[in-house]
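Format notes (please read before filing issues)

Several people have asked whether sequences and structure tokens are stored in separate files. They are not. Every record keeps both together, in the order shown below: the sequence lines, then the token lines. Line labels are part of the format and must not be stripped during preprocessing.
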Amino acid sequence: MNSIIRLDVNEEYAYSEIVEAGGFVFLSFCVGNVGGTIEEQVHGALNDMENRLRKVNMSLRDVVKVDVLLKDAWNIPIMEKVFKERFDGVYPARKTIQTEFAHTGGPDGLHVQIDAIAYKNKE
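Then the structure lines:
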């Protein structure tokens, strides 16, 4: 691939949800079930990720790296439980960061956001 493909460009907030470049696909701001439990939000973020990956004919099995942003790092065990269910032993490299979110959901809204890098096999 010699070009960079940007999909789902958000002009208002100046970012692309999906960028494909050099055999890699970069996903930003994967979220879902905002306002739900931590477990529901992790599932929602992974559902969002799966939906985006489908747009470029990929799946969670193609994800090689994730950055997980949590409002409370003590929820890492819940996130790991969901990852075990969803990635089924094919785990990406992972970094988990605790952060405060400035989101329309307020303090009881967004608690989980995931960014990802997936590898698109050229074979």
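For reference, the curators noted about this record: The domain at 16-119 is CATH 3.30.1330.40 (60s Ribosomal Protein L30; Chain: A;). Helices lie at 38-55, 76-87.
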